[in-house]
Design a protein that fits this description.
It contains 15 helices and twelve strands. It is an alpha/beta fold and about 300 residues long. The protein has a four-stranded parallel β-sheet with strand order 2-1-3-4, with helices on both faces. Strands 6-5-7-8 form a four-stranded parallel β-sheet, sandwiched between helices.
Length: about 300
């Protein structure tokens, strides 16, 4: 089936299943086009929890579908491609967190939402790329273990110098590939453009940016700014929505390497198949879910 026919069939199945389709901003354009909601992972999970849908199809990677299930435990959560993983999330385990706690007694564990459910469950607070600075700055503990993304943790620590922050040596392989020379080259090619970068990038790249923010932050900045030209330092999928929302503005990718192969695994056929079969259901055990949601709720109390 071509994409137009597939989209029509997906819409029919959504009605039959009482389903809602969520697509992360890094997904392929064809998938974002048929989604009921697009956004970042927590934003999407909370939107789905607020609907009366009985089935959530999460077009993203596994930790995102887990978060959706934890926030909507009574709903069926489907992941169209079961091996769509997040290399950053897979860089840490609950055992790693236990060792960090033993080496740093009294420190609070702040866990980036890009992590497995088991890691959220042994953390004190979750955070997102948009509120990491606020969480590290405002929680009462003076010592913080930040996992798993060292670049985001370093960015948060820079803006909370009064805190002692212990970093786990994890990274997003896509953002990590970008170097200072790439930012310099992009500026030479587009001298009138502002650089908007995600805090998962290396510190030396962030130092070259005009704005550092999450995917939602980058979208907001581009909407609000009067500038016409932008260099985007995050995964290429965000360009689709940026161009939709700002048709009179120009957007350039900071590097052609800003492509997440896991995010690009999901195709329309996968969305159709998972709705048809109701396979690939995501489950999180009750104790893990309860503890992880507690860490998420503590985050929301400081956001």
């Amino acid at each position: 089936m071509d994409n137009k026919i597939l989209a029509g069939e997906i819409n029919k199945l959504k009605k039959q299943r009482r389903a809602v389709v969520l697509a992360h901003l890094y997904q392929a354009e064809e998938v974002q086009e048929i989604a009921d909601f697009t956004g970042d992972s927590l934003e999407l999970s909370r939107a789905a929890a607020a609907t009366d849908a009985e089935v959530i199809v999460f077009c993203g990677v596994r930790f995102m579908a887990e978060t959706a299930k934890m926030l909507s435990p009574s709903k069926t959560v489907l992941l169209p491609v079961m091996d769509a993983a997040c290399p950053l999330a897979d860089m840490i385990t609950s055992a790693d967190v236990a060792r960090l706690k033993a080496a740093n007694p009294g420190a609070a564990v702040v866990c980036y939402i890009n992590s497995p459910a088991e890691v959220k469950a042994v953390s004190d607070y979750c955070c997102t790329s948009s509120n990491a600075v606020s969480i590290v700055r405002n929680i009462p503990e003076q010592e913080v273990i930040f996992v798993p993304d060292a670049n985001l943790g370093r960015f948060a620590a820079l803006h909370a110098p009064e805190k002692r922050v212990v970093l786990w040596d994890g990274c997003c392989p896509v953002h990590q590939t970008i170097a200072e020379k790439d930012a310099d080259a992009a500026r030479r090619e587009h001298p009138r453009a502002l650089v908007l970068a995600h805090p998962e990038c290396r510190p030396e790249v962030l130092a070259k940016a005009d704005f550092v923010g999450s995917t939602s932050g980058i979208l907001q900045y581009a909407r609000d700014s009067v500038a016409r030209h932008y260099i985007i330092g995050t995964e290429m999928g965000i360009l689709y929505r940026l161009r939709q929302e700002n048709p009179a503005k120009d957007f350039y990718l900071l590097s052609p390497r800003l492509v997440c192969s896991d995010m690009k695994k999901t195709r329309l056929e996968d969305v159709y198949n998972v709705l048809w079969t109701m396979g690939n259901q995501i489950e999180v055990d009750g104790d893990t879910c309860r503890k992880a949601v507690a860490a998420l709720n503590r985050m929301l109390g400081f956001s």
